[in-house]
Design a protein that fits this description.
- The termini are far apart.
- The protein contains four helices and no strands.
- It has one domain (about 15-135).
- The chain is mainly alpha-helical.
- It is elongated, with a radius of gyration of 31 Å.
- Helix content is about 75%, strand content about 0%.
């Protein structure tokens, strides 16, 4: 035999049942709002912490306390990872070639020039980023 719930049979749900549903709905909405607020606050806290770390890195760079490549290796500042990776490749190649050639050999001179250009680009990138923080 087929069973039907009270609603299909035209029986009104009890007041306490409706109140419980209402309470559960309101509680669910409240808990969702609290959870979302917590996630947003956590995200903002992380963003603020990251911003503070980036600003500290800029201060250390400007004071001469750290080199741009050292700060870049910490991963605190966006937009410098590719430059740092390329700089590291050039430095590795330079170290290998120095085992074979003297400092005046064209291969060494070229690699040192590439290294200097990448370091300069890294410093310029930091300079631009740090200006944004100090604005």
């Amino acid at each position: 035999m087929e069973t039907r719930d009270n609603f299909e049979l035209g029986v009104k749900p009890s007041n306490s049942f409706v109140q419980k549903l209402h309470f559960l709905g309101v509680t669910g909405i409240f808990m969702t709002a609290v959870t979302l607020t917590g996630f947003i606050a956590y995200g903002q806290g992380m963003a603020n912490a990251n911003h503070n770390q980036q600003q500290l890195a800029c201060n250390k760079l400007n004071s001469g306390g750290m080199k741009a490549e050292d700060i870049a290796s910490l991963g605190l500042v966006p937009g410098v990872k590719d430059i740092l990776t390329e700089l590291q490749k050039v430095q590795i190649q330079l170290a290998k070639e120095k085992l074979k050639y003297t400092d005046v050999h064209p291969v060494i001179v070229k690699l040192k020039s590439e290294e200097a250009a990448l370091k300069s680009l890294l410093r310029e990138r930091f300079k631009g980023i740090c200006q944004v923080f100090n604005a």
